[in-house]
Amino acid sequence: MNDISKRIIELTDLLNKYNYEYYILDKPTVSDFEYDRLMQELIKLEEKYPSLKLPDSPTERVGTEVLSNFVKVHHKLPMLSLGNVFNEDEIVKFDERIRKEGYNPTYVVELKIDGLAVSLTYENGILVRGVTRGDGKVGEDITNNVKTIKTIPLRLKKDISIEVRGEIYIDKKEFERVNKERKEKGLELFQNCRNLASGSVRQLDSKITASRNLNCFLYHLPNPIDYGLYRHSDVLEYFQSLGLRVNPKRKLCNNINEVISFINEITSIRSTLPYDIDGMVIKVNDIRMQENLGYTAKYPKWATAYKFPPEEVITKLIDIKFTVGRTGKITPNAILEPVKVMGSTISRATLHNEDFVKEKDIRVGDYISIRKAGDVIPEVVEVKLERRQEQLLKFSMINNCPVCGSTLVRKDEEANHYCMNPLCDARNIEKLIHFSSRKAMNIEGFGERIAEDFYNFGYLKDISSIYDLKKYKDELMELEGFGEKSINNLLNAIEESKKNSLERLLFALGIRHFGEKGASIIAKNYPSIDLIINAKYEDLIAISDIGDIMAKSIVEYFEDENNIELVNKLKEHGLNMNYLGKQIIKQEDFADKKFVITGTISIMPRDRLKEEITIRGGKTIESVSKNTDVLILGDNPGSKYEKAKELKITIWDEEELKKRLGDINE
User: Fold this and answer.
1) Is 53 a catalytic residue?
2) CB atoms within 10 A of CB 523
3) DSSP for 134-155?
4) Is 113 helix (H, G, I), strand (E, B) or coil?
5) How many Cβ atoms are within 10 Å of 146's Cβ, its own excluded?
6) 666 pLDDT more than 50
7) What is the DSSP code string of 24-67?
8) Rounded distance, CA 511 to CA 209, Å?
């Protein structure tokens, strides 16, 4: 048995070495025949002696398990997305904002791979978990599928525990191969590499994933200082020392001019790359500087994504159709002759509102140019007037709702028309879709099709009726396309959504002019739904970042008895009505004061400090002025310190800051 165990260890190490040389280094040292011979020997030994199989065995990549569903996983640290810039001027402004903070940054510029973000966790050097980004806070466990990707090592070169993040993608040649096979079988083709990669990673049967030859580049370490790494460029080199695959097409730039030059260089060869990229990522190299710059509500301030100029194509406008949103807003939509734009087939695009159509003089029958804004949303750029036929009719806005027939109303301060009928079917369906969406109540599996079908079949009437669907379980399972497993998963997701924190519910209600950030701010200040219902306009508008329009919308929403009735129904169904995060508890030293932070703060990351100030009733601002109440002083302060002294503004060093904060959880 010792000889067999020794041989299994030897084969495992040898095959993993060959995998690394072939897939990571692109320098194979053994023939395919020899590799296959050794693999077959290992498979036979593991089948005969399963207890001797090692956790990093290359046979783990074969893809044998079929899951019933993907398990939700909470990220220890959020997987944030990046803000975007679209031209040289915006790149320069990004640099200027950082320099105004008193820094002189260097940057690492990397290719923005067009794929699916993933988090990989290794324990003692062994890959134990792969998780999708999801909504940034909660993702899905795709470990079985990740193990089939040969450019992701099952064992690191060092026996350490670490979480790393990167992008799973598929090469252009593999995309063509898969689509060729599907065409021969009469199956629907994938539109682009990103969709194929995303669809492959989320297969419940890992054999399908294994057949797709996915790839991966790693590019982010959430906690580099824990590993003694203080520059992003060092992080990437560290990854390589662990045996992780890093994109070699990257550059350390000493200034923003070098950044722009490298972007231009890559732009010129973009079409020749073996994989799709949709931009470039610009990151401040210094990790301490990253921490001090911190984050906005959505994005890191120390990084941005440059998006390539969108490709424009010409197609014919066949018709204009009108849709009804959850607030009753009527949107004209261009129905187009299908055309390929950046790898996707586009057959419709938004025309926004009456003013947009009339200003561009868009008419049915026109040839128009379209593009994907930020490589994502199709938009109409202009009419090709030289190709217009003279007899085309001018656009005329409809007067009645296309669904319920109610007379439309155009509000004085807006360019939009609205259906004011609260019983309009289209409005109600859109409300259901919004309520269950990922950024709202995040009810997995409750998409447009279910909202429309269940509403039309009479199982859904309003938002609260989502929580009555369990009464119709047997009937729902009899509907075409719905089985016991899918209905059980949906009902479980509905029950799970009851536990969500108040800010998600507040956003899900669909209050006009009210987004995720506004919902979070209100929930922190008014940590129960009843407090929000009774909040007065003058109190709401006094909250930082809550403007006049948002404050009016909240008050008007809860003055409507129908909305109060809806909230009461949701209470009866057992939905959580309280904020589960840190609440705003005004503290005298902080309340209603404006703070500026300068220099390196050692007691906590800058974004954490900003949160501590906020929950005590204070506000952080970027620039020192006569309206600043306190400057918080760290090591190596910038010009803000001199200006604060000049204006005789109160200054707290770190010792003073600790006293004022009191006891805080590390």
Assistant:
1) no
2) 26
3) TTSSEEEB-HHHHTT-TTS-SB
4) strand
5) 25
6) no
7) ISS---S-HHHHHHHHHHHHHHHHH-GGG--TT-GGGGG---B-
8) 41
